[in-house]
Amino acid sequence: MDKKKIPYKIYLEENEMPAKWYNVRADMKNKPAPLLNPATLKPMTFDELRQVFCDELVQQELDDTTPYFDIPQEIQDFYKMYRPSPLVRAYCLEKELDTPAKIYYKFEGNNTSGSHKLNSAIAQAYYAKKQGLKGVTTETGAGQWGTALSMACSYFKLDCKVFMVKVSYEQKPFRREVMRTYGASVTPSPSETTEVGRRILAAHPGTSGSLGCAISEAVETAMSMDGYRYVLGSVLTQVLLHQSIIGLETKAALDKYDIHPDIIIGCAGGGSNLGGLISPFMGEKLRGEADYRIIAVEPASCPSLTRGRYAYDFCDTGMVCPLAKMYTLGSNFIPSANHAGGLRYHGMSSVVSQLYDDKLLEAISVEQTSVFAAAEQFARVEGILPAPESSHAIRAAIDEALKCKETGEEKTIVFGLTGTGYFDMTAYEKYNNGEMSDYIPTDEELAKEFAKLPKVEA
Amino acid sequence: MDKKKIPYKIYLEENEMPAKWYNVRADMKNKPAPLLNPATLKPMTFDELRQVFCDELVQQELDDTTPYFDIPQEIQDFYKMYRPSPLVRAYCLEKELDTPAKIYYKFEGNNTSGSHKLNSAIAQAYYAKKQGLKGVTTETGAGQWGTALSMACSYFKLDCKVFMVKVSYEQKPFRREVMRTYGASVTPSPSETTEVGRRILAAHPGTSGSLGCAISEAVETAMSMDGYRYVLGSVLTQVLLHQSIIGLETKAALDKYDIHPDIIIGCAGGGSNLGGLISPFMGEKLRGEADYRIIAVEPASCPSLTRGRYAYDFCDTGMVCPLAKMYTLGSNFIPSANHAGGLRYHGMSSVVSQLYDDKLLEAISVEQTSVFAAAEQFARVEGILPAPESSHAIRAAIDEALKCKETGEEKTIVFGLTGTGYFDMTAYEKYNNGEMSDYIPTDEELAKEFAKLPKVEA
């Protein structure tokens, strides 16, 4: 093959596809801090975690030394339904920006779930099936994760119980119906079906719910039913392991054409996409084999990395989950009502948090009107309507490309385009009508939340 | 390459991509009847048609002898953004049905417009740009065509004015917002902005609009504005020419692996997808080189082929368009209110109509609850949430595969999966809730419409 001719889209051949996931923790000198049992403040053991999660997933969660895990053949077979995802050269965007920068994006939206979440959903469903379970429970906010999981469970004929944040359940009925079409049961959270749900409803009548609350309900349901476990779509290190497929494919596609990226950009909510995309590049950086600028982009309205505290915190509102050390805004933090997209979790993956604390990646925050402006500009020339979450990375990529225009540098920029915005048209409508606003939490608001962080010596 | 190993998805290489569209009329012994001027009842001339359509598109419309048209390089370049579309072996569906049949589907939903409509939208936008026009006008019902056209116009920086059937404009705001995000202006039809719109509003105050009415408004607007032309997403023979890319890719992919299909199935509304998908196969059939069963699938609630009259009829409600000879339910026919998806045009492409009249293809009609049952079954195993329109083809493909199960025949079935159902979740919700109903128009209802057909000796 002529190494010089770079196609519009780079697809890997079947025999070039990664057959192993990469566990970046194996190369980290400073390992992410362990999950703690909130009762004893001791690290969670395998036996404790397997009450909540599937056995093999717990092994993956706890293993910070094995660099590669074989991707089971059944999961590789499923990946064939929508992978490899294309690495696209954004020729049209480059032309529109009139920049000397070369821009590539890894597009994860070409599957019915519409996002990268499917990469981990199918893995978690597979291990649940392999363990002989009847089903799984989970939470979902805007619905990307719930959609992906219901699709994966349908494939393996597993029962799927989704607790959907009530405000989304009511205001985003389409995602709910996608999940139901795949056979999942969807319950608005908080609900009367769990103890923690009833407790929250009693304390906050009429509440519209939160991700942290839905997590608590899903965990309680899994633990109280025979043959069920809880699964989570982000934050956990097992999820980042599965999502490493994004980065591994990206790296293989770049290597195929001898392309060396200067900057790698991902949006960051819980960290699943970012952690997956950057993992092999970060591995090289950790091993001293190569250097890259790596940028996490988060919403200014939910700035866990850029303005959060690096501390042990609860993962959920009901405090039924282990404590995790992470950059956090406090487990009761909820983004302002005008916040449109996802990326609204109060904390950040412990892996990403540790890498950030070690200054191995940068973080920036962007305001949502500028994010939608970037989304629109991208859509009009690249022909893909991006999810609001993904558009945070687009914003940062455009800004870096415009800096190159000023300096004349021909930098190579790679960003993760995690999904499509088909189910986010209400937010686009607000933007189209000029009715979208920004909000940046004040220092005082954040300080109030920080004061409630649990007192744990890390 | 090992000819025997058939991958899960067959993608063509860049150098295997078709560089010409195929004009099936060139091989038809009985040519489709010409468009007639409603005032003179004489065939529309080039000069008459170019008042409405772009010059090169009129040439394509009128040319029934040239078998191949070069695809301009600019259009080939745009096609690279989302083509080749995959030809997928439905291994999971075959397993689910436990059928010896081999099922393939050509998936056209992998682009932001979500359907095959983009294939012709980009061509029509290109010719408009080439002619130096300022913009184009069109109508849209559910919104697939309007979405595709607004995306294509955005790419070529053309103005795009869409008249959207009022009921869809109000009830399907998300498609409208996609179009606006791509920079199109979207007007609910009937509107006060056109003479025909004002006339219809005066005659039917409070009407929720129809496709035929929106066509009239779009045509009037194009003809009254300097530098504008009208474009149409289906029915016309030029559209079928552009859509031949679907069939040509399908045939190239099958040939690459020595696969001979027995049955080819497409859903049929105006005929654009069906006509495009079947064209090269029909060509072989017309030239006596091969034989195939070709099946058009239409909704029982809008059965133009299976129950319509083959006659000259108006293409629009306002009667500003030429007359076309086609299988038609009458230009005032509107499907019953419970009809959920597209495929609601009263007539059928004159090419498809003539082929059907010559018994070169079969037609069947299916009821929508059975269509959604097929959609759900397909989604759960194949991981794609299909558009209601596409699901008509799925229904027929499943039924043929189940017949093979009974007879033990290993037939090869190919069907067109024209798009995704992301914007049709209201219909899915109805189905999920058991609230979807069927409706078959009575003979009396159809007879009333037939009585209004214009009296034209063909």
UniProtKB/TrEMBL annotation, chains A, B:
Q: Which pathway is this protein assigned to? A: Amino-acid biosynthesis; L-tryptophan biosynthesis; L-tryptophan from chorismate: step 5/5
Recall the GO molecular function terms of this protein's record. Answer: L-serine hydro-lyase (adding indole, L-tryptophan-forming) activity; pyridoxal phosphate binding; tryptophan synthase activity
The catalytic activity, as recorded, is: (1S,2R)-1-C-(indol-3-yl)glycerol 3-phosphate + L-serine = D-glyceraldehyde 3-phosphate + L-tryptophan + H2O
Gene Ontology CC terms? cytoplasm
Where is each Tryptophan synthase beta chain-like PALP domain found?
82-419
A single Pfam family it belongs to is PALP
Tell me which UniProt keywords the record has, alphabetically. Amino-acid biosynthesis, Aromatic amino acid biosynthesis, Lyase, Pyridoxal phosphate, Tryptophan biosynthesis
Which InterPro entries does the UniProt entry name for this protein? Trp_synth_b-like, Trp_synth_beta/beta-like, TrpB-like_PALP, TrpB-like_PALP_sf
The catalytic activity of this protein is classed by the Enzyme Commission as 4.2.1.20
- Cofactor(s) for this UniProt protein: pyridoxal 5'-phosphate
Subunit field text: Tetramer of two alpha and two beta chains.
Family classification:
Belongs to the TrpB family.
NCBIfam families from the entry?
A: PRK12391.1, trpB_rel
Task: Outline what the protein does.
Answer: The beta subunit is responsible for the synthesis of L-tryptophan from indole and L-serine.
Q: Specify the protein name.
A: tryptophan synthase
Q: Which organism is it from?
A: Murimonas intestini
